[in-house]
């Protein structure tokens, strides 16, 4: 299987739906032009789309209808983009580069950036409600996404991350922060795909374990790339973690051990898929990609 071809196929479906939501939908006629411009700027034509791709791949892994999961996949991407816009604000990480271009607040100002993030959060659930699936599946997916984004997920993780700056932290502290800030939405992406696809309780439990493991691997690789990566490839400013004295895996355990931990997490993720057949091969390949990526 060629991962690049399969990911390109998934990404094409996601990009078309995101384009409809923010560029072609008649509902956009009533949106303030500046806000719509800011939304399109941050969402369209950028991003690896790993999280929505995981949604579609997980739906396929449990034998579900991949196309039925597209709204859920796009909802995840909208929430992810909301988090990036807010993370980049001067009151938080104060970054000036995202996805290879100036951050939203640098282009549109802090107020529009803040409100565009708010709008994406709401729009995500509106998009999710259009999922052509059983009501109970949509409700379960909405609950999973809300938990991953809220107090015990991204928002709580971001607060813990900010509070850890300029402080001595332990490995347990770093793990707790990033399990929420980064790992929760990645885990939710996999679980939501399994839910929409009609997976069994056992399958969804295995997907959750896989998502937890690759979420850890993803964050560790992000921390590594912040040190050794290339801004032209990563699309964001290098060294921002060090400038903000953020708690990171390389800071705590060193680069070599961080690489080992990422590889170990991928192995755990791969093992969680042992009960799945070849329909989960994309998930297996994505796990490998996460620790080998340069962006």
Summarize, please.
This protein has 295 residues and is mostly helical. The chain is built from 15 helices and two strands. 71% of the residues lie in helices and 1% in strands.
Q: What does the model show?
A:
The structure is a single chain. The protein is mostly helical. It has one domain: Farnesyl Diphosphate Synthase (Orthogonal Bundle). The chain has 15 helices and 2 strands. Strands 1-2 form a two-stranded antiparallel sheet. Strand 1 and strand 2 form a beta hairpin. Helix 3 crosses helix 9 (171-196). The longest helix is centred in the last third of the chain and has 28 residues, at 201-228. The chain is globular and about 50 Å long. The mean pLDDT is 91.
Please state the overall shape, judged from the principal axes of the Cα atoms: globular
Give the strand content. Answer: under 5%
CATH architecture: Orthogonal Bundle
Q: The CATH topology, please?
A: Farnesyl Diphosphate Synthase
Relevant CATH superfamily: Farnesyl Diphosphate Synthase
What attributes does this structure have?
295 residues, Farnesyl Diphosphate Synthase, 2 strands, 1% strand, globular
Task: Please give the structural blueprint.
Blueprint: H1 3-24, H2 33-43, H3 50-61, H4 70-87, E1 97-98, E2 101-102, H5 104-108, H6 110-128, H7 135-149, H8 154-164, H9 171-196, H10 201-228, H11 231-234, H12 240-243, H13 249-253, H14 255-272, H15 281-292
Antiparallel strand pairs: 1-2
Helix pairs in contact: 1-3, 1-4, 2-6, 3-4, 3-9, 3-15, 4-6, 4-9, 7-9, 8-9, 9-10, 10-14, 10-15, 14-15
């Amino acid at each position: 299987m060629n991962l690049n071809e399969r990911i390109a196929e998934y990404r094409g479906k996601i990009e078309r739906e995101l384009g409809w939501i923010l560029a072609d939908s008649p509902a956009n006629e009533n949106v303030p032009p500046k806000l719509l411009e800011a939304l399109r700027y941050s969402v369209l034509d950028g991003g690896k789309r790993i999280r929505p791709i995981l949604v579609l791949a997980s739906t396929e892994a449990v034998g579900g209808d991949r196309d039925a999961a597209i709204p859920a996949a796009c909802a995840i991407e909208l929430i992810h983009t909301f988090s990036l816009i807010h993370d980049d604000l001067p009151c938080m990480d104060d970054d000036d580069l995202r996805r290879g271009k100036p951050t939203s607040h640098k282009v549109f100002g802090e107020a529009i950036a803040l409100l565009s993030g708010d709008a994406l959060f709401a729009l995500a659930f509106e998009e999710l409600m259009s999922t052509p699936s059983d009501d109970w599946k949509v409700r379960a997916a909405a609950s999973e996404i809300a938990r991953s984004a809220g107090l015990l997920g991204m928002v709580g993780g971001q607060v813990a991350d900010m509070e850890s700056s300029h402080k001595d932290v332990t490995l347990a502290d770093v793990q707790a922060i990033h399990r929420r800030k980064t790992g929760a939405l990645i885990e939710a992406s996999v679980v939501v795909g399994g839910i929409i696809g009609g997976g069994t309780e056992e399958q969804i439990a295995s997907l959750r374990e896989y998502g937890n493991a690759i979420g850890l691997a993803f964050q560790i690789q992000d921390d590594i790339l912040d040190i050794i990566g290339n801004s032209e490839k990563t699309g964001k400013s290098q060294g921002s973690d060090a400038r903000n004295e953020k708690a990171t895996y390389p800071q705590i355990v060193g680069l070599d051990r961080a690489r080992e931990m990422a590889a170990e997490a991928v192995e755990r993720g791969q093992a969680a898929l042992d009960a799945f057949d070849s329909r989960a091969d994309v998930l297996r390949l994505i796990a490998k990609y996460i620790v080998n990526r340069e962006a």
